[in-house]
Write a structure and sequence with these properties.
By secondary structure, the chain is an alpha/beta fold. The chain is 42% helix and 17% strand. The chain is globular, with a radius of gyration of 17 Å.
């Protein structure tokens, strides 16, 4: 059984029937053992915690996404993140599609400090900002209890830094796309103990399902592609990524 290390079942873009279907699929899918429902602000984090208390497969990452920092209270985030079902701070990071870089940077630094205080790993969102995030890690504050760059964009220099610090990268349905050659190169060379799998549901369905909503059940396509590119079996990738996920997020155990 696999673990979906990053999904958004309570995303704003999902209407109630689709959310209900996503929950039903997770609860009934014997291929999915657990899933981390990732917050993007305080309200989605609260909802994720509520869902985790009612659905045993769901755990929570509590965080404020760089595109949703307006009117967000970091003190409340700290309180929410101390919940027993919260396994990480995330997703947090930088995104160059907005022009509020200084404020994004402040929120990123503050949330890494919260993670370190609570002894939690962090889940990083990086939209064309790998270099800037690594510079923050090097010069200001770095995650002390683990880190994963989710939906990792192909960048060998950043990968080398992450490997040197025992940080991880995560691969989604994007690696099944026809234009994913550089991502597949990264997927081929990343060490066995430093990669995870995710769906980022409801975003980025696999190539064969691009016209539909992405569900956690589609994690099988990500695992299949990784097994193909790494020259190993589905079972081995599933086993390895489960081990890696449980090591990075010990509260899942």
């Amino acid at each position: 059984m696999a673990i979906d290390s990053h999904m958004h079942i309570n995303n704003y873009q999902l209407d109630k029937p689709i959310k209900a279907m996503a929950l039903k699929r997770i609860n009934k899918d014997h291929n999915i053992e657990k899933a981390i429902n990732v917050g993007i602000n305080l309200s989605t984090t609260r909802e994720a915690i509520d869902l985790s208390e009612r659905h045993s497969k769901l755990y929570v990452a509590a965080g404020i996404h760089p595109l949703y920092i307006e009117n967000q209270d970091l003190n409340e985030l700290f309180t929410l993140a101390d919940h027993p079902r919260v396994v990480a701070i995330g997703e947090i990071g930088l995104d160059n599609t907005a022009d509020n870089y200084k404020e994004q940077r402040r929120f990123l630094i503050s949330q890494i400090l919260i993670a370190n205080s609570l002894k939690l790993p962090v889940i990083i969102h990086s939209k064309n900002c790998n270099f800037q995030i690594v510079e923050i890690f090097k010069k200001i504050v770095k995650p002390r209890y683990g880190c994963v760059f989710h939906c990792f964009k192909p960048d060998e220099e950043t990968l080398n830094y992450l490997i040197a610090n025992d940080y991880l990268v995560s691969f989604s349905g994007l690696i099944t796309y026809k234009n994913a050659k550089r991502s597949l190169e990264i997927a081929r060379i990343v060490p066995d103990n430093l990669f995870l799998v995710e769906t980022d549901s409801p975003f980025f369905p696999p190539e064969s399902l691009r016209a539909s909503v992405n569900y956690s059940s589609n994690l099988i396509y990500v695992i299949e592609k990784l097994a193909e590119i790494r020259g190993t079996s589905y079972i081995q990738v599933e086993k390895r990524t489960k081990e890696n996920t449980l090591r990075l997020f010990p509260k899942l155990n």
